[in-house]
Specification:
single chain, 227 residues, alpha+beta, six-stranded antiparallel sheet, two-stranded parallel sheet, 4 helices, globular
């Protein structure tokens, strides 16, 4: 075989070897840098505890008949672990008072009287059993009684010490409830009173307490009056 044929044969063998060995070498080189991939495990949510199994944390509500009582706060003792302050007693809320008392018809004839006038007449009848007569609607040169805006609370033994004291108590009662009664004025023993108190002289009225209201309109018959 000549030198040219031998050289040609050697070149062909070298090409075949390179074709086979090359990819293997690349594969081996790449394999040296490959790190194992971590296995991904899907996280499962923790099992939920049934609501019924959770220890309840309850606030006991205790009614307090008088007033709101604030629960004292306990300060941590020296050396104790610090943390949120704790309440040593349950919170207390004032409960609603018993319903107001319904007022029945009083001593004053209510025909012709307006709502606020009826209310004050019934309230005085209930609060002062010593009173036996209350005048209401009547003819008069002034508009108060004819329009159902005024009553006259007759005072037994009005000139006696007990009678004067009783009249004074009724005036004080009306002044105390002036807003609720719609009080416009009162006259007793020559003194004129407004919701702010005495405000000058008034004619007469030594045997009864005269009380004028703002009226509130004439009743329909369906009104309820409370003490």
């Amino acid at each position: 075989m000549g030198r040219h044929a031998l050289a040609s044969k050697r070149r062909t063998s070298s090409v075949l070897a390179a074709t086979v060995i090359g990819p293997i070498a690349v594969l081996l080189a790449s394999a040296g840098d490959v790190q194992p991939q971590p296995v991904m495990v899907e996280a499962k949510p923790a099992p939920m505890t049934p609501v019924a199994a959770v220890a309840p944390c309850c606030l006991e509500v205790v009614s307090a008949p008088d007033e709101f009582v604030a629960a004292p706060v306990v300060a941590p003792q020296e050396g104790a672990q610090t943390g949120p302050a704790q309440l040593v007693s349950s919170s207390r809320w004032r409960t609603a008072a018993k319903p107001p008392e319904l007022l029945p018809a009083g001593l004053a004839p209510e025909s012709g009287l307006q709502i606020k006038t009826i209310l004050v007449a019934r309230a005085i009848s209930k609060a002062f059993p010593e009173i036996t007569s209350i005048g209401g609607h009547r003819s008069d040169p002034l508009p108060w009684h004819p329009n159902g805006l005024a009553i006259d609370v007759m005072i037994p033994n009005a000139s006696s010490a007990s009678g004067i004291a009783l009249g004074n108590e009724i005036v004080a009662f009306v002044l105390k409830n002036a807003k609720r009664f719609g009080m416009q004025d009162a006259i007793w023993r020559g003194v004129y009173y407004t919701p702010g108190g005495p405000s000058g002289g008034g004619a007469g009225h030594f045997d009864h307490v005269h009380i004028t209201t703002t009226g509130g309109g004439y009743p329909t018959g369906e009104e309820l009056y409370y003490r």
